[in-house]
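Example record for the data management plan.
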Amino acid sequence: MNYRHAYHAGNFADVLKHVALVAALDHLARKDAPFCYLDTHAGRGFYPLDAPETQRAGEYRDGVLRLLDADAPPAPVARWLDLVREMGTEGGRLHGYPGSPRFATACLRPDDRAILCELEPREADALRAEFRGDARVGVHARDGYEALLALVPPREKRGLALVDPPFEQTDEFDRLVLS
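Corresponding structural encoding:
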C-alpha cells in the first residue's frame, strides 16, 4: 500500500472529516453511558508539519492553516479548532496536525473506549507508542474491515465507527460496502 496519511495531513478533506468526527463524538458524550470508537484505518496519532512527507505535498496549507485564524467560526469548527490549537501548537505556532486517533481520544471520557486499527506496521507501532499507558485505547495491527466485522457490536452497545480507507485497492469500494 502506497498511501501515507502524512502526505495529506490537515488537508481540506481531513478538516471536514475531523470536524464531523469531533461533533459526532461530542454528541455521543451527551449521554452518561459509555461508548466505543472504532477507527478502521487509523494512521498515526500526530503529524509534524515540518516532516518531509507533510512538506512535500503541503496540503495542510489549504486545509487547517486557512481556518486557524477564522473569525467567529460555527460552533463545531470552533470546537475542532480548539483541539487543533491544544494538540498542535507550540509557542503560538502550528507545528503539527492531530490525526483521527488524537481527535477521538481527546473526546473520550474515562469510561469510553477507542479501538484503533492500522495494518501498516510502522504506523501501528507509532500508534502504540502514542497511546501507551492509556487504558481506554486498544491498538490493533490488523485489517480494519475484518476488525469492523469482528468487533461490532461493542460491549458498550453504543459507538461510532470511522471507516476512511485509502481507496488504493481495486476492490476497496466492494470491501467498504460488504463491511
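Summary line stored alongside the record: The two ends are 20 Å apart (CA to CA).
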